[in-house]
């Protein structure tokens, strides 16, 4: 009878995610993960083949958590879908700092196709919510996102320690200012 597998894939991934949350991406390596699991590195490579495969799964899990945060913020119904997405992004930087850094400040970068799809998605969302033409909605999003990402980055790197009210106010104020700049399409 073969020996019982001590560390399941799920246990390894949950421990890896916890390790990244606690120590950041720089503390995430095979030795640290094996130590946290109280095992050798053999089960890691047996289950996943490489640390890069584990890292990819951790990124997927962090992305899922990020998307859940967006869905929860949208479900509250307090803000438009676009504004709720911005606020969730900033709150994720504050609440899940290490995961935010992994996803949005590290070497993990989206493909050109993913970036183009995101831009098109946000442009469509802005167009529906504001009436701004899609071509202009692209620029609206780029200007908003530069500010929102900057704010989230300052929070994640402890440059700012803002409370929830300020986090909610800034994207609203920025959006209001940009809406004055961009003209909605005339409805016929």
**Helix/strand structural class:** mainly alpha
The residue fraction in helices comes out at over 70%
Q: Uncertain runs with pLDDT below 50, 5 residues or more?
A: none
Biggest sheet layout: none
Spell the H/E element sequence: HHHHHHHHH
Distance between the termini: 75 Å
Question: Number of domains in the coordinates?
Answer: 2
Q: Can you count the beta strands?
A: 0
Overall, the morphology is elongated
The radius of gyration is 20 Å
Q: What is the average of the pLDDT values?
A: 90
Please tally the helical runs, counting DSSP H or I stretches of 4 or more residues. Answer: 9
Description:
By secondary structure, this protein is mostly helical. The protein has two domains: 1-49, Arc Repressor Mutant, subunit A, CATH 1.10.10; 62-181, no CATH class. It contains nine helices and no strands. The chain has helices spanning 9-23, 30-37, 42-48, 51-76, 81-95, 97-104, 112-130, 134-156, 164-181. α5 runs antiparallel to α9 (164-181).
